[in-house]
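Q: Structure tokens for this one, please.
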Amino acid sequence: MLSRHASPTRRKADKAIAASRAALIEVLKMRRDPALVLWSIFLLLDPIYIFKSGLPQPGDFFAILLLPFALSGWYAPGRLSAQGARAVRALFWFVAYTVMSGLIWSMVEDAWAMNLKHGFMMSSIYYVFDMIVFLAVLVMYEKYQHRFIRLTVNLISISVLVQTLLTFVYTRESSLRSSGLFNTPNQLGYYSILTSSIILLGQRKLQLSTAQVVVGQLCSCYLALLSASKAALVSVALLVMIAAINRIKTLLATALVASFFLFIANPFESAIERSQQRIATDQSLGFFEERGYDRIVDHPEYLILGAGEGKYIRYEFTSRIKAHELHSSIGTLIFCYGFVGTLIFFNFLWQVARGGPLRRFLLLIPPASYGLTHQGLRFTLLWILLGVVVMLNDADFKERLLKKKKKRTL
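A: Here is the predicted structure, written as tokens:
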């Protein structure tokens, strides 16, 4: 028990020891629960890519093992909160639309290859998997409540720290850019944005320590610099500005630590120099053509129902990016699924953000801005981020209900 007469430093130390003891007890309890163990392994292994992009990675196998434990009995009445159920239903209709679109275009083009360059159905498989992960997140939240939110955010904090430390030992590099343990620098850049957003989302609700948030933000910024992704750097800058709105104390602490690193020879300095050099020597196509937006203009006949997400070989001689997918999430939605599919998806996003405070909505802007220049819809961590938003909004709703009940009983 903390003494009222102890010095502020001693009280802080006692609180830190008490928090560490509670975390240890939580870990010991967790090892008896297969679902939480598998969830933890999945989040820690998620940023480690061993196989070719598009194939299941080590973390995905643990996610598959997790699903039977997480989803058992999810269909029972009251298993999902009202907001969670609305979000899942909205996502189901979007995924159903992608499956229907893929099947129809596969029949029209007689294209049944299980790759996106020559077929259509692979994209639907990704979305079905991510929808099931999103559902599993919400079902596990209903079972474990606040404990599951805290575990998820803490694991993300550990994951980004481990990823950062491992880059000092090994990283995949090409020219001026690094990929960390991912296959491409853009994957590393997107991961840095999503982890930073998740940590900031949980900061207030979970009362995360300033040290944990500062370390998480510095690691995310460092990984974004390593990736030398212009979109990632812009998105991280947006997060920093939004963090100032959320909690100025954390922003100042992060800025002070970052300033210290800037004035000594260290990996931060090297990463900044490489990012600056990459931006200065960039000779890519114009934004519109480089991201594939020219396809939308060149094929207005697909604006209503979409051209289907796949068989990109169709555009090898008509698009500046040739037979590649659009490098844009919003571009993919509009071109591949038309206004109908895009509206269905945005209805899902509305159900996710519905009822949350403005500052929580603002933290979704940086990942969304990254989606203007990269296709990130199939990145599983994005769906975990959206699941975290639903969990936090539902926790707020339950707290408001509890306060109303207390007032009535007084």
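A few notes: The radius of gyration is 22 Å. DSSP finds 17 helices and two strands in the chain.
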